[in-house]
Design goal:
Layout: H1 3-18, E1 26-30, H2 40-49, E2 54-57, H3 62-67, E3 74-79, H4 84-89, H5 91-103, E4 110-116, H6 120-123, H7 128-144, E5 152-154, E6 157-158, H8 178-191, E7 195-198, H9 201-207, H10 214-217, E8 228-229, E9 236-237, H11 240-254, E10 262-267, H12 282-297, E11 312-314, E12 367-370, H13 376-387, H14 409-424, E13 437-440, H15 499-505
Parallel strand pairs: 1-2, 1-11, 2-3, 3-4, 4-5, 6-7, 7-10, 10-11
Antiparallel strand pairs: 8-9, 12-13
Helix pairs in contact: 5-7, 7-8, 13-14
This protein binds 2-acetamido-2-deoxy-beta-D-glucopyranose (6 copies).
């Protein structure tokens, strides 16, 4: 394909991503277990300026609810586990809760959902029997106030409710919680509410100790030989999150519930962790969350439920340093308490919260290079695209420049692919080039030829001021609106090489 055609393809991708396709929504969790909190008014002002459309609060925080009034932001309010017993046992306690925290806030604060409890079935099994009564009492109180059609009631569950999630087509719920889950699913179906799921590919990936490639967890393209296929359904999976969601869909189907949609009440990736949590890095966090948001906004569902859009509340706004648990659980935030960005992320329509873009360059320590032995014509096409429409800086490849020699297609493509990738990965650019590219953690620099993103270089791409809110300056030139993921090819090479591993490891 000529560079002109590539440009045409790129334009088409841009048009598609800026016009008709509307995916699920992206919201953000706001937990307030932090030692220094910004004011509710400042939080609301930030959400507004960033164009955030949905938030989830963990309790009926009076100040935040008041600050969100008049913003139009749709709010999911939580009922903490500590209040479950009271509300599950007493319809009048449930009615009082609804009156005080919901009815009295409407219509100024646009409450559209109530999340009853948090991961009750796995973290608080003793309270399981009170869960559905609590949901029922809250729903009855909404019916009494004629609010049930505009406010959905559900209960977020952890991924641990599924015993073994891969392959998704054989996943099932843990038997010990089946009775309560059946009641929960009946309630959700009857009230047409979604199933709320918290799913963290970071923890699934870490717990699996090397079974999954990191790229699978980060929504990055896998080399063709590593494509992952469910052996029973033959469905190809290109990311771990979709597999996790389909595992829950499949488990629900086993209980004859085929119509209840899943909404992700939590997903995210820690930007820091304990010394044993090596993959909890800012680089991986920005890549995961950026690709997560693009995946959701891109529309479409999972391989198993392509027609069911997925929506997500990114976890979470602030690092909650007062939470118990490993360092990673205190490091899932995207914004500092002083309301500057920890790393750039486009949570709403208002432009990304920009941190210093150079901090996003190469932070993951991954380089994108030509696959050895790749087809020469395909390399030439990819090289022309990267240096043309891809806006890679190919100056160093000119005759007389440091990376000209060895004068081979593979070397030149590697340099150009990597320069493109370092500039665009934070806005969704991928390392694929029609299957001729692959990522590596080995710095490909040699002699005076320094690859972009290398620690041997002084910086690499563009960088501008830091620590302030405002639109990102995407070095790839694809800044406005939601950045498209540029995928050159989706041709699937359905190799099931590591499925055998699953049978050994689980
Ligand atoms: C609240 O959100 C609902 C659901 O999208 C929307 O239809 C309604 O107009 C919103 N109300 C206000 C007051 O913004
Ligand atoms: C199922 O849940 C029970 C109770 O929470 C737990 O003890 C058990 O380990 C779980 N089983 C599996 C296979 O995860
Ligand atoms: C699901 O439906 C099938 C067919 O109607 C029935 O045989 C099966 O027992 C049902 N399973 C459950 C868990 O209700
Ligand atoms: C905000 O807080 C972070 C972390 O404490 C700090 O690194 C940064 O410099 C602060 N930014 C401003 C503008 O105060
Ligand atoms: C392109 O790279 C060369 C070095 O190879 C550098 O001198 C030049 O400033 C870069 N141009 C831009 C626009 O970044
Ligand atoms: C990708 O490569 C295949 C064969 O290697 C070729 O048939 C196809 O046209 C290429 N696609 C693009 C977009 O260049």
């Amino acid at each position: 394909m000529s560079p002109e055609k590539w440009a045409g393809t790129l334009l088409l991708l841009l048009i598609i991503s800026f016009s008709g396709v509307s995916g699920g929504f992206v919201g953000v969790n706001i937990g307030m277990d932090l030692s220094s909190s910004p004011s509710a008014e400042d939080i609301a002002a930030l959400l507004r300026s960033e164009g955030v459309t949905h938030v989830r609060l963990f309790d009926a925080d009076r100040k935040l609810l008041a600050a969100l009034a008049g913003t139009g932001i749709q709010v999911t309010v939580g009922i903490p586990n500590t209040e479950l017993l009271r509300i599950g046992q007493s319809p009048s306690a449930a009615a009082a809760w609804v009156n005080l925290n919901v009815a009295a806030q409407l219509p100024d604060t646009n409450i559209t959902a109530i999340a009853v409890g948090s991961e009750v079935l796995t973290s608080l099994p003793n309270a399981a029997l009170i869960l559905v009564p609590a949901l029922t009492n809250i729903h009855a109180a909404l019916v009494a106030s004629a609010l049930d059609s505009q406010i959905k009631v559900s209960s977020p569950q952890a991924m641990d409710i599924v015993v073994q999630f891969f392959p998704p087509s054989t996943a099932s719920f843990n038997r010990s919680i089946l009775p309560v889950l059946s009641l929960l699913l009946n309630f959700l179906e009857k009230t047409e509410a979604p199933f709320m799921l918290n799913a963290y590919p970071y923890y699934a990936y870490s717990d699996a100790k090397g079974i999954y490639p990191l790229e699978f967890a980060l929504f990055r393209d896998l080399p063709p030989a590593q494509r992952i296929v469910d052996p029973n359904s033959d469905l190809p999976y290109d990311n771990l999150l979709d597999a996790m969601i389909d595992a829950v869909y499949h488990s629900m189907e086993a209980l004859n519930h085929t119509h209840t949609p899943i909404i992700l009440t939590e997903s995210g990736w820690p930007h820091g962790g304990d010394s044993s949590e090596l993959d909890a890095t800012p680089g991986n966090a920005i890549i995961y969350n950026t690709n997560l948001i693009n995946h959701v906004r891109g529309g479409g569902g999972t391989p198993g439920r392509p027609e069911s859009e997925v929506s997500v509340f990114v976890y979470e706004m602030f690092d909650e340093d007062l939470r118990p648990g490993p360092m990673s659980e205190k490091s899932l935030g995207v914004i500092y308490p002083n309301l500057t960005a920890i790393y750039p992320l486009q949570l709403g329509s208002g432009g990304a919260l920009a941190a210093n873009p150079s901090s996003a360059l190469g932070v993951s320590g991954l380089y994108c290079v030509a696959t050895p032995g790749a087809d020469a014509l395909a390399l030439k096409t990819g090289l022309d695209w990267a240096c043309g429409p891809g806006l890679a800086n190919c100056t160093a490849l000119q005759e007389g420049q440091p990376c000209y020699n060895p004068n081979t297609l593979e070397n030149h493509a590697s340099y150009a692919y990597n320069d493109y990738y370092q500039r665009s990965s934070s806005s969704g650019g991928t390392c694929n080039f029609n299957g001729t590219a692959t990522t590596t953690s080995i710095d490909p620099s040699y002699g005076t030829c320094v690859f972009t993103g290398s620690s041997k270089s002084s910086g690499g791409g563009g960088s501008s001021g830091g620590g302030v809110l405002g639109p990102t300056t995407s070095p790839g030139g694809l800044s406005n609106g939601s950045p498209p993921r540029i995928r050159v090819s989706r041709s699937a090479f359905l190799v099931t090489f590591f499925l055998a591993l699953f049978h050994h490891c689980y």
